[in-house]
Description:
By secondary structure, the protein is of the alpha/beta class. It has 8 helices and 7 strands.
Amino acid sequence: MNWVLRCLRLIYLAIKGVLLRIPGGPWLWAWTDPLHLARRLLRQAIQERSHYARGSLLDIGCGGKPYRDLFQFVDRYIGLDIPSGGKVDVIGDAMKLPFRSQVFDTVLCNEVLEHVPEPSVVMAEAVQVLKPGGYLLLTTPQTWGLHLEPYDFYRYTHYGLRYLAEKNGLEVIEVIPTCGLWATLAQRMVDTIIHTYAIRRPPWVILALSILLSPVLLIGFILDKLFGKRGDTLDNVLIARKPELAYKQG
């Protein structure tokens, strides 16, 4: 069995080496990541709205700060998270932020809200640390499997996000889906096969499945482009603003 694994690994490395050297090869190889479609769509949605972020930014649940490079107008980037081994600047709790009121121009909260038992408290904390006129950029899943159990509590439609934001005094600029039905179906199918049915299989089985299923992700991506963001979505993106007038009058 060991020689089979070695042969498969050599074949894998050979295919990867060839693809990474040809034009367009790295783009194609990226689709062998079982989560590539969701990550690509989320990054694109954040990038298209990165102009809202400016000045000092607080990243709640920052992890490895995967979107740090997208914010060109941010001059101070503070990452907050629980102890996780990521690129954390401040260790803290999203439901009790360790900052003074009105100190950040922007708050980023990416794929965190589903993991907190009291989402309205997190929203209120974000509003508290935002300066008047500052922006909240928040993403959270609508259609996704259980993850980081048992700390996986909610899924959010655009109605739910709008309600939470307005309940906490924010002006909603937009709530937009990252994709439509076809991308959602493709990503959920691949993710479920790899991370549910194949989770205890040998690494070479998972690798082979990831390569074989990569066209499914690509087809879902193409169909989504053709038919638009209709039906279910993987994630929603909220852009909201803390009003200035009410605070000036106070």
